[in-house]
Specification:
The protein has 178 residues and is of the alpha+beta class. It has helices at 16-28, 43-48, 56-82, 95-121, 158-166, and strands at 6-13, 34-37, 145-150, 172-177. Helices cover 46% and strands 13% of the residues. A four-stranded antiparallel beta sheet has the order 2-3-1-4, with helices on one face. The model has no long low-confidence stretch (mean pLDDT 93).
Length: 178
């Protein structure tokens, strides 16, 4: 037990099956602020804690649309408003000539939005995280599977949450201090 505020309770499991079962049980019990830590990607664990909703695709779409609008507007402004030159009798607003630049600006906007959106939605860069305070967490990158239920969850109660986690028979349950 720690003396100060805690980040949450972390349960350590030996197999991925045990972790997924505990995560599904915690989700069914109403916990929503939790995370799993595994040595390799485990799609079942992500689905068990309800982390399948991803907003990166929406961010990329918005970035592509803004890039497209910006590219087309830039071409129009330069060719028809700021520096109109009549080349071969073509109209100043010759939209077929604007399409390649518009496409490239859409791709650039989508790429930039994907990178910065992913960083922002993941809360990165984050050089420190409280789970690193857990004594056995170093094994999360080798051979153990962890489920951490955060104390910010509305249903979190140290005693009730501990009882729930104990019902899944983990190797160990530790309090994670801030």
């Amino acid at each position: 037990m720690t003396a100060g505020p805690i980040y949450g309770l972390m349960a350590e499991f030996e197999t991925p099956t045990e972790l997924v079962e505990a995560a599904k049980g915690a989700y069914a019990a109403g916990y929503r602020k939790m995370d799993t830590y595994t040595p390799y990607p485990l799609e079942e664990a992500a689905e068990a804690i309800g982390a399948h909703h991803n907003r990166v695709s929406l961010v990329v779409l918005v970035g592509a649309m803004l890039g497209m609008i910006g590219g087309y507007t830039l071409e129009y402004w330069v060719s028809a408003i700021s520096y109109p030159i009549n080349v071969g009798g073509k109209p100043f607003h010759s939209w077929p000539a604007f399409i390649p630049v518009t496409f490239e600006c859409a791709v650039l906007g989508a790429c930039l939005a994907a990178v910065f959106g992913m960083l922002a939605l993941n809360g990165l860069p984050q050089p420190y995280h409280p789970v690193f305070n857990s004594p056995n967490f170093v094994r999360a990158s080798r051979d153990r599977f962890f489920l951490c239920i955060e104390s910010q969850d509305p249903r979190f109660s140290p005693s009730d949450t501990r009882k729930l986690l104990e019902s899944y028979k983990p190797e160990e349950i530790t309090e994670v201090p801030y």
